[in-house]
Amino acid sequence: MTCKPEISPAVIPFPCVISTCRPVHPQFDPVPQAIAFGLTILLAIALWVVTLTWASPATALSCRMVHDQEICILDIHRSAKYHWEYRATVRINGDRPVRNLYNCRDHTQRRDDGSTVPFEQHSAGDYICRLIHHA
């Protein structure tokens, strides 16, 4: 270790004594290092929590395998006036999402073109009513 005397060499003609020397590159104070390390850990934990809790809009609310079909509910709203009706956007087997009105009382679904068809066995409408309405 290279030492730099605290008093000029003209005053002290003998070599530097270890107890009166200080290093040429002084060490950093450990307290600010500990604070910086703690803040780094807190930032990493906060980033981890945000990535786990934040869901992108494309994330499905619920996906299930129902008799060889993957049914994903992307968006669902319950009717305020008719509590047995649900307007849901559903994606089946990765196809284009479809928005229909599902009537859990009559077990029918109304499509965007206005046609009303009964639920098929193990269909998206049947799944929605069992999952949410407990019919």
Describe, in plain words, how this protein is organized in 3D:
- The mean pLDDT is 77.
- This protein folds into two domains: 3-53; 62-133, no CATH class.
- Strands 3-4-5-6-7-8 form a six-stranded antiparallel beta sheet, with helices on one face.
- With 135 residues, the protein is α+β, with helices and mostly antiparallel strands.
- A hairpin with a 2-residue loop joins strand 3 (62-66) and strand 4 (69-78).
- The longest helix has 24 residues, at 30-53.
- It has helices at 30-53, 124-133, and strands at residues 3-5, 21-23, 62-66, 69-78, 85-92, 98-103, 108-110, 116-118.
- It is elongated, with a radius of gyration of 34 Å.
Describe the SSE topology.
Elements: E1 3-5, E2 21-23, H1 30-53, E3 62-66, E4 69-78, E5 85-92, E6 98-103, E7 108-110, E8 116-118, H2 124-133
Antiparallel strand pairs: 1-2, 3-4, 4-5, 5-6, 6-7, 7-8
Number of strands: 8
Q: What is the CA–CA distance across the termini?
A: 81 Å
Range of strand content: 25-35%
Query: What percent of residues adopt helix (DSSP H or I)?
Result: 25-40%
Total domain units:
2
Main sheet, how many strands, which sense, barrel? 6 strands, antiparallel
What value does the average pLDDT take?
Answer: 77
Number of helices: 2
